[in-house]
Each structure stands twice: as C-alpha cells, then as structure tokens.
Design goal:
This protein is an alpha+beta fold. The chain has a domain of 211 residues: Alpha-Beta Complex (Flavocytochrome C3, Chain A, domain 1), CATH 3.90.700. It is built from 20 helices and 22 strands. The structure holds flavin-adenine dinucleotide. The site of flavin-adenine dinucleotide has 42 residues, from helix 2, helix 3, strand 8, helix 10 and helix 20.
C-alpha cells in the first residue's frame, strides 16, 4: 500500500504507472489479491469466502475497528426463511411456491428487460436460497433462531398483492450481533494468520480502472478516532492512499443517513418527501460510493426504490445523529393521520410499509404534515410493542432465554426498553382519559390539529366491534386472524379489548415519524455479483454486494420487501461476490 501526503504525488504517480504495467502479472507488487471496500456484513461475508480459499484480502473501511460489522450489528437480526423447522413447529405451512408468489406480489417488477433484468433472477435465486440451503448454512456458522417466528409485512389484503401470507421473520439469538459475530471472528482470525489486512479509517474516493479492468482504489486516510461504535467520527484527512489488487469488491451500504440523497431520489409515487425524518442508520451509511462507482463505469439502477418506515421515534438516548428507532408494531394500535382520521385498511400496523407511507404522503390535506399517530392502551404496549435494533432487545442480544421468557411471554409490564421510551421518549404521552390524552398529543405539534370528539367517535365505533369473535372492522378481523397463529397469540397480540375500557390501563398516544432505512436499488450486478457497466457488459475485476447492489442485481426486492430479507441479501450477495472473486483470482 502507498500512503503519501499531497507533496509526494509525483512519486505516487510514478509508482502507479509501474503498477499499471505490472499489476495484472506481478502479484507480489499488489497489496492483496482482492480489495473489499466496506466492512459491514456483505464485506465480511465476501472476506470469509476469499480467505477460506487462501486469497489475500485488504479490507478497507472509513470507520474504526469498533465499527466492524456495520449496520448489521445494530439490526434486529430478523432473517427471512421459508418452510423452516421453526415455522413447522408453530403450525405454519410454507413452501417455495407460496414464498415465490409472495415475493413477486411484493416486488411488482415492471422494468424488464432493463433495470429489473438481473434483479428478477436474483429474486428467484434468493427465494430458493431462503427455502433451501440458507438455514443450514447459517446454523453451520453457529447462528440459531428464536422458537417463535414473527409475521412482518402482512400485506395489502390481496392474495396476489404485497405481503407475507405466513410468518417468516426468524429472529436470531444475539439479534444483529449474533449475525455478524462469526464473520467478524473469521476476519480477525484471517488477519492473525496474515491473509487479511484491515485498513480502518481509509475512505475510498475513487476506483482505479485500467484498460477497462478494476485494479485498485484511491482515497484519504482519515485521522484516528476512538469514538464508540455507531457514533459519528471525524472526517479530517491526513494522507492520500492507494491500494491495488486483482479484483475489487464494493460493499459500502445504502444512503439512509444522507437525507438530501434520500430526497433527491424520492419517487413521485410516494408523494413529497417529509421535511423532517428520523435516521435509522449510522452516519457512515452515506451513499457516496454509488456515484464513485458510476464515475468508474458502473450502472446504477432502481435508485427511486427505497424502504423507509412510518413508525419511527426519536431515540431518547441517541447514538448517531438524528437517531430514530422503529416500532415493530403488533396489530392492535389504532393509527390516525395528523388530522386525527383513522387510516383506512390496509394501512394497519404491521401490514404494508410503503402503502402506508404513500397514503400519508399523497393524501392532499395531510401531506404537509410529517407525522401520524398511534393510540393504544397499556395492555397493548405491554404485549405488542417491540423496538427494532440490537441495543433495544438486550435479552435476545445477550441470548438470555430466561430473560426473554420472563420479559415477553410470562411477565407483566412492557419490556424494559419499551418502558424506557414510555418514560423518556419525546413522542409518547399517557393519560387516563381521552380528552386529556388528546390535549397532550396536541401539545406535541405546532398547532392543535386533533379534536378529542372526532377521535372518540372513531374509537367508540371500533370498540363496538370487539364484542363478538367476528367483526366488520378490517383491523379487528386482523387481530382475530393474528391470534389464530400461535406465535402471535403467545407473544405479539393482545387479547381484543375496548380501547376506552379503563381496565386496559391508561391510554397512550405515540407520535410517529418517517424513519429512513434501506436503499432497494443500486449497482446492477449479475448472479456472480460482477458489476455491469452502462452497456450491460461485465466490468472485469469489479464486484458489488449488499445494500450497495440493491441486495443483489441492483434491486432484488423490486418495490417492496417482505422483511428479514436485507441481512440475508447481504450474506447471499456477499457470498456470491467472494466466491466469484476467488475463482477469478485463482493461481
Ligand atoms: C437498526 C437496524 C435494524 C435492522 N434490522 C434488520 C433486520 O432485522 N433484518 C434485516 O434483514 N435487515 C435489517 N436491517 C438492515 C441491514 O442491517 C442492512 O441492510 C445491512 O446490514 C447492510 O449491510 P452492508 O454490508 O450492505 O452495508 P453496511 O452495514 O452499511 O456497511 C458498509 C460499510 O462500508 C463503509 N463505507 C461506506 N463508504 C465507504 C467508503 N467510501 N470508503 C470506505 N468505507 C466505506 C461504512 O463505513 C460501513 O462500515 C437493519 C438495519 C438497522 C440499522
């Protein structure tokens, strides 16, 4: 590796010209067999595939060693699996065929043959992976899953539309920390064995492409920074650097921390982007690599496809700037828009993330407001609220099965982190009567937009629907449906009750914000994670995986995700990149 201050550029140029001539022939002059940019889950997975095949890897990341694992460390560790033993034990009948139809109904691919041409192939390969080898491959790396399977994205109420027909969200013991742990361990072992070199605090600003082939990267060495994991770090540049290798794998993640980028690519079909959003990812998820790779010839596709949540909260104890936490809601909270009107079906808690976002952003008289509301009872929050993120689920993160049972199945009261939000969160209000609750909700907005009588009429109408085991109200039907699934009845769906029944505990109002999270589009790649250029041809030596590549192919999800598919997409596409780069760099 060359590191040089700006005064030494001529020397660097000289050395580079020597390398240009020799790079592909003289391996000893190269810094590694393969450079991986991005030490998140996709990069670490690729690194493991390479080092386990004896390849020398340079692992480059702009953050410090404390951040190994990237976003995945912070994740809930939810993994999409199809027809698993966990599902079968819960009485769920799933199959590759059902999952594939759900995927197609959600993805709604409509850009073939063009931006979706590789995405569709990736989708099929990924669903087959999820229904086949994925679970045994993960358990082979030491991962294990909670016995109950979650039911995320229940969908838009159409059999052939968006959504999971059955529960498929398998939470990893250890949450995201449990997912990244083996891959971090492998990287450290490879470093100790001399096969992998960490280049922390190295920010890549340019890809080196010689005669159409990717041969290295250039960038800035950033000043040392001992900030803890997830905290923003300094951007002080101390030197230039360059690295050369036979191949380069890009795994730098999405765009969620850069709200300007999110707004620039916000699609018209989702109305206008909110003025205020909370941020669901650390600051290093900055999306810069997309344009850097485009300048090097990579084709970017489906940039208007994104996955942002409508149930975001301001974190009362933030780690990264604008830190937002997503509620993973059960089905019973009532959802109101900024003017206090109940959201229509299918825009119910836990059903249709982007449909709800579209409703909130395109309905003319509410689109100017950036928030919506949940109204619920103490009884609902205790049973149904979960918060996404490893740090919000200490029992599962610590793999503490007893604490999990105590807190979530047998215990009284909300889980500790949920209760902490109830006590300290700026978006929560609690009251024993609806009038006082609405007063408190109105105090959280610039103008008092809610009328207690309007809310009361809607809540009373809903409450009349819970007296029978059947109902004409779509949400109440959904609650009953949910309780027919053992996993939800045990831990995720409160017994149907009247919201205005004082026995259900105080009423709770929660102000919800749009939370930026995932990019669904990105660099277009073929099934070996090889980067394609504007003409559709492979750029030799260049690979991309993880969120940067739309989790495979430039957009494996199409327009909508079934959830738990992002970590798996990083593992699957990172694995493909590592294997293909290992083949291409074989002796
Ligand atoms: C709170 C939270 C909960 C989540 N829960 C789930 C879940 O339950 N299930 C699920 O499937 N998904 C979940 N996700 C999504 C999932 O974690 C991410 O999509 C995935 O981890 C992205 O991994 P990646 O390797 O592609 O990129 P990242 O993890 O973003 O890693 C990219 C790395 O590249 C580095 N980098 C960027 N640019 C440069 C540059 N120019 N030079 C050098 N280095 C650079 C960054 O510093 C970073 O370390 C969650 C995410 C979050 C934040």
């Amino acid at each position: 590796m060359v590191e040089y201050g700006s005064v030494d550029v001529p020397f660097a140029e000289q050395l580079l010209s020597v390398r240009r001539g020799a790079a592909l022939k003289e391996d000893s002059l190269l810094d590694a067999d393969v450079i991986i940019v991005g030490a998140g889950l996709a990069g670490l997975t690729a690194a493991h595939e390479l080092t386990s095949r004896g390849r020398r890897v340079a692992l480059v990341d702009q953050e410090n060693a404390a951040n190994l694992g990237g976003q995945a460390f912070w994740s809930f560790g939810g993994i999409f699996l199809v027809d698993s033993p966990e599902q079968r034990r819960m009485g769920v009948k799933d199959s590759l065929d059902l999952a594939w139809h759900d995927w197609l109904g959600s993805a709604q691919f409509d850009r073939e043959p063009d931006e979706d041409s590789w995405a569709v192939r990736w989708a099929r390969a990924y669903v087959e992976f999820a229904a086949g080898e994925k679970r045994s491959w993960l358990t082979g790396h030491g991962l294990s899953f909670l016995p109950t399977v979650g039911w995320a994205e229940r969908g838009d109420l159409r059999a052939d539309g968006h959504g999971n027909s059955v529960p498929r969200f398998h939470i990893t013991w250890g949450t995201g920390t449990g997912v990244v742990e083996p891959f971090v361990r492998y990287a450290r072992q490879a470093a100790a064995g001399g096969l992998l070199t960490f280049h922390h605090r190295h920010r890549v600003d340019e890809l080196i492409v010689t005669d159409g082939t990717a041969v290295g990267v250039r960038g800035k060495v950033l000043a040392a920074d001992d900030s803890g994991r997830g905290f923003p770090s300094n951007r002080e540049e101390t030197a230039d650097f360059e690295l050369t290798a036979q191949a380069v794998i890009l795994t730098t993640g999405g765009i969620g921390a850069d709200h300007d980028l999110v707004r620039r690519y916000w699609p018209e079909r989702l109305g206008s982007a909110p003025k205020h959003m909370v941020t669901g990812v650390p600051a290093y998820v900055d999306g810069r690599m997309l344009e850097i790779s485009e300048r090097a010839g990579a084709r970017l596709v489906n940039r208007d496809r994104m996955w942002h949540y409508t149930e975001g909260l301001h974190n009362w104890d933030p780690i990264w700037p604008g830190h937002g936490i997503r509620i993973l809601p059960g089905p019973s909270s009532m959802w109101f828009d900024a003017l206090g009107r109940r959201l229509p079906a299918p825009y119910l808690p836990g059903y249709d993330t982007l449909g709800t976002l579209r409703h909130l952003r395109t309905t003319p008289d509410i689109a100017e407001y950036d928030h919506s509301w949940f109204v619920l009872t103490q009884k609902i929050i205790e049973k149904e609220f979960a918060l996404s993120g490893s740090e919000q689920n200490p029992d599962i993160t610590a793999k503490d099965r007893k604490a999990f049972l105590r807190e979530r199945v047998l215990g009284k009261g909300a889980p500790g982190p949920v209760d902490a939000f109830l006590q300290n969160g700026a978006d929560f209000v609690v009251a024993h009567g609806l009038s006082v609750l609405v007063e408190k909700m109105n105090a959280l907005t610039d103008k008092p937009l809610l009328d207690a009588d309007v809310l009361r009429r809607q809540i009373e109408a809903r409450d009349r629907q819970v007296a029978n085991p059947y109902s004409k109200d779509a949400q109440v039907q959904g609650i009953r449906n949910s309780r027919r699934y053992l996993g939800d009845r045990l831990g995720r769906t409160a017994t149907p009750h009247r919201l205005l029944d004082p026995a259900a505990g105080p009423l709770i109002g929660v102000k919800l914000h749009v939370l930026t999270r995932k990019s669904l589009g990105g660099i277009q790649t073929d099934l070996e994670s090889r980067v394609l250029g504007a003409d559709g041809a492979v750029i030799p030596g260049l690979y991309a995986a993880g969120e940067l590549a739309g989790f495979g192919g430039g957009g494996v999800h199409g327009y909508n995700a079934l959830e738990g598919t992002f970590l798996g997409g990083c593992l699957f596409s990172g694995r493909a990149a590592g294997r293909a780069a290992a083949r291409s760099t074989a002796g």
